[in-house]
Amino acid sequence: MSIVRLTYSGNIYDAAPAGQQDFPLTTDSGDPIPYLSAAHIHVYSSIDNGATWTELARPSDWDFATTAGTTVRLTSGIAAGTWIRVQRLTPYQDLWTTFQEGSQLTAGQLNVGEEFSMYVDQELFDHIKVAGGIPDAPDDGEQYGRKNEAWSVIQIPPETIVSPTPPPNPTESQLWFDSTD
Asked: How buried is residue 108: exposed, middle or buried, by Cβ count under 10 Å (0-12/13-18/19+)?
């Protein structure tokens, strides 16, 4: 199985020696993997070269090696050939920040909300990448848009139609705006 490397949200350690317990919370390129909560960090092991993964439980199977939370430490060293995946999974289904009417927000509070959005976006990017990604549009100088599975040339700028009703037979190069709004 070929390894698809995570760009932002994790790392797959596929060549760690037997007995290794500490795994830095960094990407394959060595960049730190920041997170908002320790609960967002997940650790998995594979004994079949990444074909299947088993999530390890915290704290019985792993914990953070230091209070800084930048290294994952397994409770016992890995066997030869074991792969370890460390990954941030930010829970996008729930609000992370809630703003109250009339509140005086600090830059730090606003930044946390932005970090949440950025982490979810990065994880989505990595998920799409692992799933095979979205193929690049042709590079022939034309402007392309995507509808369903295929790329098609689009007219730039599109024809803009402003009317109370949509055009009867719209084409790909038309944008309709409802004039009654």
From this structure: exposed
Q: Report the predicted TM-score, pTM, of the whole model to 2 decimal places.
A: 0.70
| Contact assessment for residue 86 and residue 10, using Cβ atoms and an 8 Å cutoff | yes
- Closest by CA position to 65, among listed 23, 8, 29: 23
User: Could you tell me which of 117, 128, 112 has the C-alpha nearest to residue 6?
Assistant: 128
What amino acid occupies position 34? P
Q: How far is CA 168 from CA 153, 157, 163, 165, 181, in A?
A: 22, 21, 12, 9, 20
Q: Residue 33 burial by CB count (10 A; 0-12/13-18/19+): exposed, middle or buried? A: buried
Find where tokens 């139609």 sit: 161
Question: What is the C-alpha to C-alpha distance for residues 74 and 78, in angstroms, rounded to an integer?
Answer: 8
| Pairing assessment for the beta strands 159-163 and 174-178 based on DSSP bridges | parallel
pLDDT 10s digits, 9-42: 888 999 899 999 999 999 988 999 999 999 999 9
- What's the gap between Cα 133 and its chain centre? 12
> Using one digit for the tens of pLDDT, what is the confidence trace for 97-131?
888 888 888 898 889 989 999 999 898 888 887 76
